[in-house]
Every structure is written in C-alpha cells, then in structure tokens.
Amino acid sequence: MLEIRNLHARIAETGTEIIRGLNLTVKGGEVAAIMGPNGSGKSTLSYILAGREDYEVTEGDILYNGESILGMDPAERAAKGIFLAFQYPLEIPGVATMEFLKVALNAQRRARGEPELKIPDLLRKVREAAGRLKMDMAMLKRPLNVGFSGGEKKRAEILQMTLLEPKLCVLDETDSGLDIDALKVVADGVNALRSPDRAMIVITHYQRLLEYIVPDSVHVLSRGRVIKSGDKDLALQLEQNGYAGIVGEAA
Ligand code: ADP
Ligand code: MG
Ligand code: MG
C-alpha cells in the first residue's frame, strides 16, 4: 500500500535536510510502528506523507497503491484516503467540533462524487463514533480542540479518523500526554479500525502504546532513516536497552 523509496527531504525555508534516505514498505492490513529518539524525523515524515508545504522532497519517491503522491496536495491525498492524526492537534477557535466534522465529511463525499450527508445521518454517525470513544456529545459543541485536555484532543483526532474511514492512517505520538484510561480508549478506537484493506503507521517514542496496539512490524528511525526493522519484540528490546545501542550500531 505504501512504499517509501530512498526519501530525502529538507525544510523548504532553510534547506536543512531532515529525512536522509528513508526506506519503508507498509502492506494493506499492516500496523507498522515507527519508533525513534526525539528529533529523529518521525513527525517530519508524517507531515511529508500528508503533503505539508514546509518540506521539500529532493530525492526518492513515495508510492501509495503504486502511484507517486509527491505531486499531490494535502486535499488530494486526503481524498485518496490518507489521514494524519497530529502529535499536536491544532486549535480552531470559532469552529464547533461538530461543524468541523460536517465540513470534513462532506468535503470527502464531494471529492468522491457522493451526496452530502443529511443532518440526522451525520448526527447518528457522529454519536455512534463518539460513544465508542467515550466522548461527551456536549464537547462537540465546543470549538475544535480549544481548551481540550491532551486526552480530549487525541480522542477528537481518533473521532475524525473513525468518521473519515481512511485507508492509510498515520498517528503521530497519539499516546503522548495520555493517562492510562485515555490511552486504552484511544487504542481501542484504533484497533476497531484495523482491517485487511487499511494500513496504519503508529509513531511513538515509547513502547507503552504498543502493548495496546500490537504492531505487525516495528521500524526504528534515527537521523532521518530507518536503521532497523523487526517485529513487536524489537519494541520490547528498545524499551529495555534504550535507543543508544541500536543507534550506535547503525552509525
Ligand atoms: P521527532 O518527531 O522524531 O521528534 P521531528 O520530525 O519533529 O522529530 O524533527 C526532526 C528534526 O528536524 C529536529 O532536529 C527538528 O528540530 C528539526 N525540524 C523539523 N521541522 C523543522 C522546522 N520547520 N524548522 C527547523 N527545524 C525543524
Ligand atoms: Mg519529538
Ligand atoms: Mg514528533
């Protein structure tokens, strides 16, 4: 489903190279965990997948279902089923969460040539998904993410993901700032979306999340490239020994 080949990318403004020859393949149905020390380029990779303009790809390619996405803007990528849950979800003052969900869902439906959702259908869908994530419906009247706790923001991200039913989900440190109960709820939401035709990339600094979202593969990022890949045991090994050993080995 996703094939990243020898990707090199830099910050457009300064020219600093952050991604330095990254290779990664993720199959449909696979849950791939990306781990790595702070500053290794995990968030940068997720932004590049989503198509953020601040980064420039200088070499390599990103194939999604065999097609390069490098020439596509973020909206096109989203319409093709790529979804990024942010490490730091943006606050959008003045836009109620429910209104935001309606706009996002209808934009996706328009892109697919489907009719807009009728309000009762929208409410039913949102109520079901919010219920599963143990989110209070009253929260949906509040401006998106404004004054939400860390856990509430992450739930709001998973709610958007659940409703948009993407094919490739990229979750950037969805665990950061979550207490254990919120972590379980978020992990349940993610696990509910696991399916043979959907791939997920779960980015995390810590092994803890991977006790709840058990990955099929684990990839360690360091200085902008994947330096080691393995199965879920690699995450346990990292938890015990830290990143230093593996990073040193690769260097
Ligand atoms: P991670 O998510 O693995 O902690 P990031 O992708 O956030 O790492 O950052 C990788 C490196 O790139 C860091 O050294 C960070 O400071 C740098 N970086 C990322 N984006 C920018 C930017 N827009 N301007 C300057 N430096 C950046
Ligand atoms: Mg970081
Ligand atoms: Mg990050």
UniProtKB/TrEMBL annotation:
Database matches in CDD domains: ABC_FeS_Assembly
PROSITE patterns: ABC_TRANSPORTER_1, ABC_TRANSPORTER_2
Domain ABC transporter: 2-248
Pfam families assigned: ABC_tran (PF00005)
Family matches, as InterPro entries: AAA+_ATPase, ABC_transporter-like_ATP-bd, ABC_transporter-like_CS, FeS-cluster_ATPase_SufC, P-loop_NTPase
Superkingdom of origin: Bacteria
ATP-binding found in the keyword field: yes
Protein name, UniProt field: Fe-S cluster assembly ATPase SufC
Source species: Aquibium pacificus
Name of the coding gene: sufC
